[in-house]
Amino acid sequence: MADHRTKRNVAENTYQTSLTYKEKFPVGKVKTIISEVLESRLANQTYQSDQSSSWTREISDEVKNRIKQLKLNRYKVVVQTLIGEKRGQGVRFGTRSFWDPNTDFAASETFSNENLFAVVVAYGVW
Q1: Could you tell me which of 102, 105, 96, 109 has the C-alpha nearest to residue 63?
Q2: Integer-rounded Cα radius of gyration of the chain
Q3: Measured between alpha carbons, how far is 27 from 106 in angstroms, rounded to an integer?
Q4: Is the predicted pLDDT of residue 38 greater than 90, yes or no?
């Protein structure tokens, strides 16, 4: 009697549960990107409350787009920007996250001139 069973191709799972060193979020490069964007956008600006909303959106978009050009595999990128007027006050800026410290990263930079200050935080969540 002949064996009529057919061979089945079995596919293995291809998901990754960890990163290699080369795949990790490049915090140093991202900090450089943030600094360059802040300097180019805000160096000669004075604080204008009616403009700060569009500035935050434009800065966040530019930082995010430049980070995407790094072609980071599987990372979701979130950018948060805060711009405020300097009036001799103190400011505290804090964030809290629930993530995996082995795969998720954040990079932040600050900028200030005589009239305004800015803080940008870029999160890379794998």
Answers
A1: 109
A2: 22
A3: 7
A4: yes
Show the beta-strand stretches assigned E in the chain: 76-85, 105-112, 116-125
pLDDT at 22 (0 to 100)? 82
Question: Which DSSP category does 114 fall into?
Answer: S
Stated pTM of the model:
0.83
Nearest to 28 by CA among 99, 81, 106: 106
Quote the pLDDT of residue 76.
Answer: 94
Measured CA to CA, the distance from residue 114 to residue 85 in angstroms comes to: 9
Q: Give residue 6's pLDDT.
A: 72
Model pLDDT, residue 105: 94
Handedness of CA 33, 62, 80, 41 (dihedral sign): positive
* 109 contacts 71 by C-beta, under 8 angstroms: no
